[in-house]
Structure prediction request, 462 residues.
Amino acid sequence: DGYSDLSAYERKRLKNITENAKFFAALELHEVSARLSQLTTKRQSYVTKRAKPKKVEVEAAPRRSMRLLRVEPVDFPLLETPARPEAEEYPQVPVGPLPMVPEDQAENSKWTEALLGTWMRISELKADDADQGTPDIKRYQESLSSMVLSEENIRKVVKARVCSMAIHPSESTILVAAGDKWGHVGLWNVSCRSEEGAHIFIPHSFQVNCMHFSPCNPAHLLSLGNDTLRCGDVTRAVFDEICRSEGSFSCFDFLEESGSTAIVSHWDGDVAVVDRRTPGVSSELSADIGFRRTRTVHVHPVNKQYFLAAGSVDVCVFDVRYLKAKGNKPLSSLTGHTKSVASAYFSPVTGSRVVTVCADDKLRIFNSKNIQVLLIFKKQSKPKPTKTASQNLAVWDPKQEHCFLVGSMAQPRQMQVFQDTGKLLHSFSNVDCLSSVCSIIVAHPSQNIVVGGNSSGRLHVF
Prediction:
């Protein structure tokens, strides 16, 4: 009655709402709701609530350069991932002379003294020149076939990839030096045949690109790092600093038999003349030879004023007497390389041949007198040639004018000896002992000894 002003529709709607309210009140639903809430609370009190684990988001580890972390690839799969060396584990080597103290001096000082004593003793002995001529090919091939590899002549001498090697000229003791990519120099007395026969020294901060025993005094071991050239003098037990550069050294060779002067190449293409007799650590001359990159330099064995430089696709002969800072022109060029050249070397006795290794998987033999290419052949003469390792170097055997050695990726793993005619004379292999590529090879100047170094720091002595 109090809603007489409403329309008929609104009065009917209000009546329905009132009747519905009375109906739900009669059902007493609020009591049922309270009862259900009470039962639910009571049941939950007997239930142990398990803590919900927090969701952990797994972040993908950022990719890092193995080269910058100084983690070396191995030749076989490991069961456990090796620990990555920390930066502080390999501090920068200080400038100036360094004492010839090995990394493990505190534990094996007596064995180190024995090794250095052996090096000093054998350096005082003079080699017998009675039979130093080049043997004929048949006799030489027979001597190659007699050389074998045994387990005791395999040793991990340095910690990382072998970048360079040198073998002492002694005829009584086999002493091998190896340089790796972390600046370590390992000395191994192979003739010792014991665990104490090898020790590691750290004369460089970066990889050791080239090593030579002095041609007139094998008590001196010269090693070339990326930024410094050092001379390890065992008579004074010190690594002297001969030359230092802001650039990046790649290779060196002696310009005379006394070993006093050397030609040194830079990765950026320049070459430098270094004289060990002058004070200071600067080169005598730095010369731009027009190369974008210079990987190896090699001095002619007879005419020491000539040296061979190999770079990106350039292989040229220069005269050191006419080098100047700019505008140098080569005496001759060995053309035909279309990809990066890994190495170029004169033959050891007369220098009448040059062997080059190119990334196009070809070995080239040149006549250095009239600079004519005599032979171009694939490294593998069997059905389909396998790809060669880009860092493989072909080195002449100092005992044989017409033969050189080179690493191979063929299976089984082997080191090969070629004649300058392209004939494969011999393959050094051992299925049980040699299972990796030996990209760095060195041969003894007078004995039937060949050493191959691999990417994990191991040396194999045939």
Remarks:
- Residues 366 and 409 are 24 Å apart (CA to CA).
- The longest strand covers residues 238-244.
- The chain is about 15% helix and 30% strand.
